[in-house]
Amino acid sequence: MTIPLRRPYPPMEAQSVDDVPAGPEWQYEPKWDGFRCLVFRDGGKVELQSKSGRSLTRYYPELVQAIAAIKATNFVLDGEIVVPHGKAFSFDDLLQRIHPAASRVKKLSVETPALLIVFDLLAENGKSLTTLALDERRMRLVTFAKIALRGNKTIRLSPATIKLADAQKWLKQVGATLDGIIAKRRDLPYQSGNREGMRKIKNYRSADCVVGGFRYNEGTKIIGSLLLGLYNEQGLLDHVGFTSSLKAEEKKALTPKLEKLVKEPGFTGDKPGGPSRWATKRSAEWKPLKPMLVVEVCYDHFTGGRFRHGTRLMRWRPDKSPKRCTIDQVTAQKKGDLMKLLK
Predict the structure, then answer these.
(1) Dihedral pair phi/psi, residue 338, rounded to 5°
(2) For the chain, which residues make up each domain, given as ranges?
């Protein structure tokens, strides 16, 4: 018996929207903060595939072992790899698991073991299930989980609900810890590589930040991005990220105003261009500013002392004192227990 889906197999993806869609045609699931993963089990062979089609198999030996222990021997699962850290998941620990050295991979598999959270069943017993509606696939996945995953602490079934109130309750229960909500059309088949019928609503947060510097657009003298800072516990201004979500005309008008405020040092703590996984060849090319301007930005995650992705500028805050832009805005948020959702 062979698996009916060939690798690399593009997973179904989601379209970003601002509001959770409502109606009886939708199923809701938590949006997990990890690496998307397709699991292929064909007899004694187990393969883990990333969203981009690359193999993740060698990086997660503990998952391979757990999948190989399942009595069912022919299936394809869609899910998310996460690394638990207390009541939440650590994306930093997850990133560290992608390491070229086999000895390091083995060590981390023990120190920071991963979980696989499954939310779809794409093939079983040599037959593809992708043409079935989500409702039917979900029923088969629940049955599969009851039999195949019983007692397996490394592979968990993602909760799902057709009640919008339940999805909203998840967000209220776990607050800033949950990445958001996924909404899926119950009546549609699995659409490989497509975004139709699936929506993601991210659990955005906001913070007031000091504009400690800026970068020009490459090859121009027009501002491209604002560099953001937060004061740490020692009273030093640390560089924590950037925002570039200004319109072209806004950037042009803002350039001469910010150029008048250029003054060393800008950031008195961690500076742009320092060692980090986000650093690029342009990281050192920036202009420092007097710490006078404050902006409120919208972000999805703060980890490792940085906003993981670029933030969205919401508004300027002339009413806010720069000294009040402290790190506790992003570190003192209420943390819910994500693991409770998996029980």
Answers:
(1) -65, -30
(2) 12-30+164-203, 33-157, 205-331
